Amino acid sequence: MSDTAVLSGASAAVPAESGKSPKRWLKWAIPLLAFLIGVGVGGAGKDTDVQASPAYMTLKSELTDTQEEAADLEAEVADAENRIRQATAEGESRLAAQAAELAQRTTQLDERERALVARESAAVPAAPAPQAAPRSTAPAPAPVAPAPQATSTYYKNCDAARAAGAAPVRTGDPGYAGHLDRDGDGVGCE
To answer: What is the pLDDT of residue 78?
Structure first.
């Protein structure tokens, strides 16, 4: 045999094994080198600082902005709640004041009404007590209603009465009619 043997897939001849082992360190050096290269390449992604990446910085900035907006909104909500409390308190105090004023006015009106009733009762003369009259068997005459006055004057409406110089027209005046007295108080074309 010759001292050299050809390995499959190899382009150069490798010396055949002889009594000496050729470079034993290559058997463990190549896998070690591959391991170190793998660790270096694989570990390069792990060693990068995530906090320094642009995506992280963008998210962190957005988070900070959002937290600031939330704090601002919380302050606005607290301010709005304070204003609502103040407005409610003011409304309740105004309502209480109006209720007190209404009660006072009611009391005053009641007093005025009592005074008015007292004055009216004092102003009406006491009617003499009817004396017992001897009873007769003849029936009492029926009360006679006043005869309506024949009016030769007629006003179509209040404008016509005013034009004639008759406004206001009172009950019993020539030209007085119910269509001129809308509120029925006896005075038309007021």
So the answer is: 95
